[in-house]
Amino acid sequence: IGYCNLCDAVIAPSQAVADDLQERKIETRVEVIPTGVDVAWWSDGVDDSVHSELEIPADAFVVGHVGRLAKEKNLPFLANAIASLMVQRPNVWWIVCGVGPCEDQIQAACVEHGVQDRLRTFGILDRAQLRSLYHMMNAFAFASKSETQGIVLAEAMAAGTPVVALDAPGVRDIVVDKVNGRLLIDQNQQSFVDALAWIADLDKANRHVMDTELAQTAADYSIDLTAKRILERYDGAATAKQVMDPAELHSWRSRVNRVEKEFQIWGNFAHAIGDALYRSTRNIIFS
């Protein structure tokens, strides 16, 4: 709080982060400017050969997920929901991009439902490979409830892929229900399955409307636009900056000194812990 109040401007990547800062009584104005994505780059790169290379039928409905395969991403719920959809619809395939401790749970859910032959997993990919997979997806599935912003969602939308996600901080900033995807208020497996099926069953006219909305959302998150907004915010803060009066300057210096002392205290504390661990390790090795 003290650090933010020392600043002339504070930028938050999503409304959820801005709300959290304001709840903590930040006095400095907080403006929401998301991290931008290169829309032109992500929207390009359609590769029709990817389906055959991955042995996925050209007419398959491909659900995708990109991100760290970690507990906080709510992957057991996501895996069971998508596996259930795969049981109901034999034309549904799932591609997962990322690494992490939950990969085994994803595999196990598909094995339990008997659909492991329609699961494709990838580790860390370069941008070109990831872009090809985004374009291969018919829907992007996301169940995390602890995001500060939805960068992968913006990337997917830039590639023309609608998103099905649970309502959560960062996510609700970008996903609009039945406009550029589905945003589900409650964590319910059948509702998530139904939302993916809703995307799959869209007719050409309604899918065209959604494609237009996806392009507009991606444009709102373009790196050119967000960089412009950040520069404007810097210029605004610099223009509004005035010379501090002596009392304000003294207060500011006092806060800076306090922060420096806190860093020094924690640095000494960390050094002491490290030294103790080192001595303990030496005793174990040489005893």
Mean pLDDT, nearest integer?
87
Helical percent range?
A: 40-55%
Global outline? elongated
Low-confidence stretches: 276-287
Query: Which secondary-structure class do the elements indicate?
Result: alpha/beta
Annotation, overall tally of beta strands: 8
Question: What's the order of the H and E elements?
Answer: HEHEHHEHEHEHEHEEHHHH
> What does the radius of gyration come to?
24 Å
Which band does the percent of strand residues land in? 5-15%
Straight-line N-to-C gap: 48 Å
Strand order of the largest sheet: 5-4-3-6-7-8
What's the tally of helices? 12
Q: How would a textbook summarize the main sheet?
A: 6 strands, parallel
Assembly of the depicted chains:
single chain
